[in-house]
Amino acid sequence: MVESRIALVRAPNPSPLTLTGTNSYVIDCGNGEAICIDPGPPIETHVEALLAHCEGIGCALTWIALTHGHPDHAPAAALLRERTDARIAAHEGSVAHDRTLRDGDSIAAGDVALQVASSPGHSADHLVFYEPRERALFTGDTVLGEGYVLITPPDGDMRAYVQTLARLAREFAQARTIFGGHGEPVREPAAKLHEYIEHRRIRERQILDALKGAPKTVSQLVESIYAQTDRALWPAASQQVIAYLDALEREGRIRSQRSEGSAPVFALAVDSS
Predict the structure, then answer these.
(1) Distance (Å, rounded) from C-alpha 82 to C-alpha 118?
(2) Measured in whole angstroms, how far is the alpha carbon of residue 69 from the centre of its chain?
(3) Which domain holds residue 234?
(4) What's the structural domain count of the chain?
(5) Would the pLDDT of 8 be above 90?
(6) In angstroms, rounded to a whole number, what is the distance separating the alpha carbons of residues 199 and 123?
(7) Packing angle between helix 234-250 and helix 158-171, nearest 10 degrees?
(8) What would the pLDDT profile of 169-200 be if each residue is shown by its tens digit?
(9) Exposed (0-12), middle (13-18) or buried (19+): which is 32, by Cβ within 10 Å?
(10) CA atoms within 13 A on the CB side of 178
(11) Other C-beta atoms within 10 Å of 19: how many?
(12) Which CATH number belongs to the domain containing residue 231 in this structure?
């Protein structure tokens, strides 16, 4: 078995949403070159850990590739760039960068050529990267090692997210490992993507079923659907519900009533059975 040239260097920023911390990845590309994917938050000890790893494998950082510009994934890119000759590659709508990446592009260093795929949903600027040699799919905050992804409108879009999951399942069926932005690597990518798609289908069905009885506010939907979830996570759950409601309202399947000084109330617009 070929030894992996992918190293996970986890940032020390654990939280309920980042799990054990943000995953940064360093790929030994051969020829003394390396690529870092998602250098993480601007924590000096983490930057030092990334630099130390590159030194330990005898590689100079060539590229810093960003899946998206969220503050737990991207800010350390500028710090790394100051310390190395590496250039930052990111989506056109992301943080400051040297090279704009578009769907279908590739990032080359040594004998590695990362394939770039647009993956909106968690954020509008989200990208995923595929390394064919190890059949490794770097998914940022599109797929995690555990739990599910937070979709927060307006930058997050539930319909775009589900379409992205379907695309990954279809176009990267050969992937052997998913390296997500948080949690441990996923060794059964096809099963994980199926799980994610099914989870979203079930959650949407739960919302529509909850609205069959009577119109409800976001808070009422969260209290009903997330009754078994830690209440500390209910604010995040509210954002998830809003993302579903936004999608359903755009499609004309629900309608909202908004009165000044009170929370919006949502109801079925048509038979959604």
Answers:
(1) 27
(2) 11
(3) 211-268
(4) 2
(5) yes
(6) 19
(7) 90
(8) 999 999 999 999 999 999 999 999 999 999 99
(9) middle
(10) 25
(11) 20
(12) 1.10.10
